[in-house]
Amino acid sequence: MTPPPAPAATVPAPGVASAGTPTPAPRAVRGGLLVLAGMLLVALNLRAAVTSLGALLDEIRVGLGLSGAMAGLVTTLPTIAFAGLGALTPWLVRRWAAPRVLVLAMLALTVGQVLRAATGSAAIFVLTSALALAGIAVANILLPMLVKQHFPHRTGLVTGAYTMALTVGTTVAAASAVPVAHAFGSWRAGLGIWAGLAALAVLPWVPLALRARAARRASPPAVAVATPARVRPGRTRLGWAMAVYFGAQSLSGYAIMGWLAQLFRDAGYRPEAAGLLLAGVTALGVPVALMMPALAGRLATLRPLVLSLTVFSAAAYTGLALAPRGLAPLWVLLLALGQGAFPLILTTIGLRARTAEGTVALSAFAQSTGYVIAALGPLLVGILYEATGGWTAPIGFLLVALAVQTTAGMVIARPRYIEDER
């Protein structure tokens, strides 16, 4: 039955036309495109500040006189920040609109990168790096919520697009930080140049933040209604399964990024070739990042994807243990396919929540808890490598982590919603 037309005195909400009034589709489309552009620019920044630091760590350590312990703290800082500061994001979103939070997050990333590239103090370098990483930590949590909020029927496609942007930003920053530093004669240029990219990511969110603020002021006073119970993923089986899957795949990913080049060096590759093989994992991951979310969004159950990713990773680890030199390009390809677990879990966060509130709560819990787990990866691989002098024990550890990841994956594969498990 067609609803009656709205009274003449009623002002329709933004993006919603009253009966007999044309729907302002072009404005809605422009708003959606602006959100999408903003999300892609944010995604480009989500790892650039981390991988550029890793590429220039030796130069930074010498330039600032970092001790071994301080250098270790700098390399562990991303996972600490992502775990601790990401957990605050739901609290921030309950008080301010998401666009405003993202403006502040990208400003923190911009200022932090500028200051850490300019300082001559090791302590200030760590503090300003933490400021930059705080912005990344908040944005990490917000992007799945924004997908759910603005693109509920294009979850896989939009998640794939921003995950691909994230992967591109990671690869470009890792590959170009050293050449930029050499071109300008200082590691500070190779590290600080990414502040410009972060500043660019602020721009789309400023008008969106102003629009959200104006809409909130123009809205009528809220009517007292019963508020739904807050979503608490930490009290659910699904929430913990998501956190374990996110943590196990991130643990493997950080271990690969930190140690794969060394494994290939030990197998007899020159440093340049070992670095190219490591870059190949990230580069080959770009199409995987684009396709995986779209594929996940179309399947009734995620079990085939979870098991396929396990097979790819297990084959790669076995090959690296038995024949790291002979078939290295094949192992790199299989590792890239296995790392499709990252875009898969990002997509699953949106698929396993009914609401934007549920999405941001699940995203915060899964990523914050997961990054605590992930921080153990490079550390334990390094300990096992130093203790045994070889790669059999570290790869065995990664296979155990893969088994844990697969077990959690079987739990999250079945369609269900976090709001139903309160």
Automatic annotation (TrEMBL):
<dbReference type="Pfam" id="PF07690">
    <property type="entry name" value="MFS_1"/>
</dbReference>
<feature type="transmembrane region" description="Helical">
    <location>
        <begin position="124"/>
        <end position="147"/>
    </location>
</feature>
<dbReference type="InterPro" id="IPR036259">
    <property type="entry name" value="MFS_trans_sf"/>
</dbReference>
<feature type="transmembrane region" description="Helical">
    <location>
        <begin position="238"/>
        <end position="261"/>
    </location>
</feature>
<keyword id="KW-0812">Transmembrane</keyword>
<feature type="transmembrane region" description="Helical">
    <location>
        <begin position="361"/>
        <end position="385"/>
    </location>
</feature>
<dbReference type="InterPro" id="IPR052524">
    <property type="entry name" value="MFS_Cyanate_Porter"/>
</dbReference>
<feature type="transmembrane region" description="Helical">
    <location>
        <begin position="329"/>
        <end position="349"/>
    </location>
</feature>
<feature type="transmembrane region" description="Helical">
    <location>
        <begin position="191"/>
        <end position="210"/>
    </location>
</feature>
<feature type="transmembrane region" description="Helical">
    <location>
        <begin position="391"/>
        <end position="413"/>
    </location>
</feature>
<feature type="transmembrane region" description="Helical">
    <location>
        <begin position="33"/>
        <end position="57"/>
    </location>
</feature>
<keyword id="KW-1133">Transmembrane helix</keyword>
<feature type="transmembrane region" description="Helical">
    <location>
        <begin position="69"/>
        <end position="89"/>
    </location>
</feature>
<dbReference type="InterPro" id="IPR011701">
    <property type="entry name" value="MFS"/>
</dbReference>
<dbReference type="InterPro" id="IPR020846">
    <property type="entry name" value="MFS_dom"/>
</dbReference>
<feature type="compositionally biased region" description="Low complexity">
    <location>
        <begin position="8"/>
        <end position="20"/>
    </location>
</feature>
<feature type="transmembrane region" description="Helical">
    <location>
        <begin position="304"/>
        <end position="323"/>
    </location>
</feature>
<feature type="transmembrane region" description="Helical">
    <location>
        <begin position="273"/>
        <end position="292"/>
    </location>
</feature>
<protein>
    <submittedName>
        <fullName>MFS transporter, CP family, cyanate transporter</fullName>
    </submittedName>
</protein>
<feature type="region of interest" description="Disordered">
    <location>
        <begin position="1"/>
        <end position="22"/>
    </location>
</feature>
<feature type="domain" description="Major facilitator superfamily (MFS) profile">
    <location>
        <begin position="31"/>
        <end position="418"/>
    </location>
</feature>
<feature type="transmembrane region" description="Helical">
    <location>
        <begin position="159"/>
        <end position="185"/>
    </location>
</feature>
<feature type="transmembrane region" description="Helical">
    <location>
        <begin position="101"/>
        <end position="118"/>
    </location>
</feature>
<keyword id="KW-0472">Membrane</keyword>
